[in-house]
Write a structure and sequence with these properties.
Largest sheet of chain A: 5 strands, parallel
Number of strands of chain A: 5
Number of helices of chain A: 9
Structural class of chain A: alpha/beta
Distance between the termini of chain A: 27 Å
Largest sheet of chain B: 7 strands, mixed
Radius of gyration of chain B: 20 Å
Order of helices and strands of chain A: HHEHHEHEHEHEHH
Structural class of chain B: alpha/beta
Strand content of chain B: 15-25%
Largest interface: A-B, 31 and 28 residues
Oligomer: heterodimer
Radius of gyration of chain A: 18 Å
Strand order of the largest sheet of chain A: 1-2-3-5-4
Helix content of chain B: 25-40%
Strand content of chain A: 5-15%
Number of strands of chain B: 14
Shape of chain B: globular
Distance between the termini of chain B: 49 Å
């Protein structure tokens, strides 16, 4: 099972071709396992933020995105842009599991000379990475540029941007939110990974976000609200996003839980940026991994 | 006849597009002032106004360039560079994308708009970014030629243009190639290197000094990055001392590029006439006087430097802002 490579546009009315939910859930579990193993190898790397986005990323890479892992710059590919750059381990995991580069390369996360730096960095030429991030709040604007370029170049691909709720405290997010509907970018989708936690702990973004759906709607976006860990909802929303042709971009507000999928991560803010201890990692891999064993031969 | 490089920029955009160059223009809600409006009128499908949101605009430009669409992004220099510096660094400089930033109303000659609009740090900031081409054209011909070089280049660049109207200097021989500089007037006693709106001031100072028997070599150095250290050093060795004249802070910018080149290649006495600090709100001519950027100031600084270079102790030029230029007004709480 690798990313779909057909040139046929993803839609909601061809369900027979949809990747089964069970398969996607297994992929999400694989991504979470890989994240724990990579972060353990690196000694740091934001497992919590990766976990909250794992189901969304799995649905994108193993069902929704039109992409060709053996041809990362294929002009017709859907674009995925990670604005919450600290969640990049889960994206590296998805890229490796899709076939962009070998799984073993995940062991090089954050190492000297690696193509897998601590935050997305296109100057490292990581196959499949489309935008540098790590300073928060810039991804939606970049996505507007990418979506507008598609229009200029006569391409019909979709553009997905994943933002965190913490970074919605950045003003630039709202500058971009104003602009995209004005330019009629209905092939652009923003997914807000709303885990109601931030680097300083479980109390959430310091300036509370309130009714996010109402906010995006009032800015002119078509809004979907989903449970970001219920795979059928995730798949359905991402499949239909960007398929409307009414000029409105799509905002998917995905309610998530930081560290979802493993209680030790979910319950401790320590694992915003820290790896699990050895024994905890062994137990986690045994619990999470669809194969029951480690992918990267750790610890 | 005098013209501003801002006006020249607006006309150049249309001219380059008429010549078939492939690029779009993004603007930060200042299409009239930044002179992108004529391009919008001529090429509406290639003009994208982001509104007053410089950070957003720079990231949008980066997304376009990443997708293979070359971009010229224009706004006031003070807001484009200072406000969006993080976006410029992460999404333009680090990936090395084909984005040409154009900052208008640069320097203190933006005049009565006051210090919020006076970009006097922009060159220091942008030329600190690895891989960025940075330039300050002297007149209309050089504006078009440098813009063409930047738009057709393969990496990020910044062109600084002015609202201030100045005479034609190099209509026949603009510095087109990245890093190039040109001796506008050969001389033997002092090298004066400058760029942008200050070059005509330097040329007038050179005339006056010549009539007093002091021979000045005037160098127009529109490219800060890359910078032709060898050519500048060759001039320094001919004259034995170098004065930098720039409508920018002495920190970084042209002063930084020149003094670094001299330190490495031709350590001769040097000094600078530069903007000493935040200048106030007044017509450009008044601000040039209050900050010490007039022909008289350049003449005085060149004489002092020549005296020092000749072995006679003399204090470096130094230009202190008169406190009156800063005005009185409200002090922060807790200060006396």
């Amino acid at each position: 099972m690798t990313g779909r490579t057909s040139a046929v546009g993803a839609g909601v009315d061809d369900r027979v071709t949809w990747t089964p939910v069970d398969d996607l859930e297994a992929r999400a579990a694989q991504l979470r396992t890989l994240v724990l193993e990579m972060v353990w190898c690196a000694g740091s790397g934001h497992p919590g933020a990766s976990f909250s986005a794992a189901d969304i990323v799995a649905a994108l890479y193993f069902d929704v995105l039109q992409h060709r892992p053996d041809d990362p710059r294929w002009a017709g590919r859907d674009r995925f842009l990670l604005s919450k750059g600290h969640a990049v381990p889960v994206v590296y995991a998805a890229l490796a599991a899709s076939g962009y580069f070998p799984l073993e390369e995940l062991r090089t996360l954050r190492r000297p000379g690696s193509r897998l730096p601590g935050h997305p960095d296109v100057s490292r030429r990581t196959p499949g990475i489309e935008m540098s991030s790590g300073s928060l709040g810039q991804g939606v604007s970049f996505g507007i540029g990418v979506a507008q370029a598609a229009r200029i170049r006569g391409l019909d691909h979709r553009t997905f941007v994943l933002v965190g709720d913490g970074e919605c405290n950045e003003g630039q997010v709202w500058e971009a939110a104003l602009l995209a509907p004005h330019w009629g970018l209905d092939r652009l989708t923003v997914v807000v990974d709303r885990n109601d936690a931030a680097v300083e702990g479980p109390r959430g973004p310091i300036s509370p976000l309130g009714d996010l759906a109402a906010k995006w709607q009032s800015f002119g976006w078509a809004v979907e609200q989903i449970d970001g860990h219920r795979m059928p909802e995730v798949q359905e929303a991402l499949r239909s996003a960007g398929t409307r042709r009414d000029g409105r971009p799509t905002a998917i507000i995905a309610t998530t839980r930081k560290g979802h999928g493993l209680s030790i991560i979910e319950q401790s803010p320590t694992y915003h940026a820290d790896p699990l201890p050895d024994e905890a990692l062994r137990q986690a891999v045994a619990t999470l991994s669809p194969t029951g064993s480690s992918y990267l031969d750790v610890p | 006849m005098t013209r501003s490089t801002r006006d020249a920029f607006g006309e150049s955009l249309v001219a380059l597009a008429d010549d078939g160059l492939d690029f779009v223009v993004v603007d930060g809600g200042v299409s009239g002032a930044a002179r992108t409006a004529p391009f919008e009128a001529a090429y509406p499908d290639r003009f994208l106004n982001c509104g007053i949101s410089e950070q957003n605009m720079v990231s949008v430009a980066a997304g376009l360039a990443w997708s293979g669409v070359p971009v010229v992004a224009a706004s006031f220099a003070a807001f484009l560079i200072n406000r969006a510096f993080d976006q410029i660094r992460l999404q333009v400089a680090q990936p090395g994308l084909r984005v040409t930033l154009v900052g208008s109303h640069a320097g203190i000659t933006a005049g009565p708009d006051g210090i919020s609009a006076h970009a006097i740090e922009d060159l220091a900031l942008v030329s600190a970014l690895p891989g960025f081409s940075v330039g300050v054209p002297v007149d209309a011909a050089e504006t078009e030629s440098m813009l063409r070089t930047m738009v057709t280049g393969d990496g990020p660049s910044y062109l600084r243009v002015s609202k201030h109207k100045t005479p034609v200097v190099v209509s026949e021989r603009p510095c087109t190639a990245p890093g190039s500089l040109r001796v506008l007037r050969p001389g033997s006693d002092v090298t004066i290197v400058s760029h942008g709106v200050m070059v005509p001031v330097v040329l007038a100072a050179a005339e006056r000094l010549e009539s007093d028997g002091v021979s000045i070599e005037v160098v127009n150095a529109p490219w800060l990055s890359p910078f032709d250290e060898a050519a500048l050093s060759a001039s320094a060795r001919r004259t034995g001392c170098v004065l930098v004249v720039t409508e920018h802070l002495g920190a970084g910018g042209l002063v930084g590029a020149v003094t670094a080149a001299l330190a490495r290649r031709a350590p001769v006495p040097a000094d600078w006439v530069a903007v000493p600090g935040y200048a106030g709100s007044a017509p450009a001519g008044d601000l040039l006087r209050s900050t010490g950027l007039t022909v008289d100031d350049v003449v005085g600084a060149a004489r002092s430097l020549l005296t020092r270079a000749s072995g006679t102790p003399a204090a470096p030029a130094g230009h202190e802002l008169e406190l009156s230029a800063l005005g009185g007004g409200t002090a922060p709480e807790g200060t006396s």
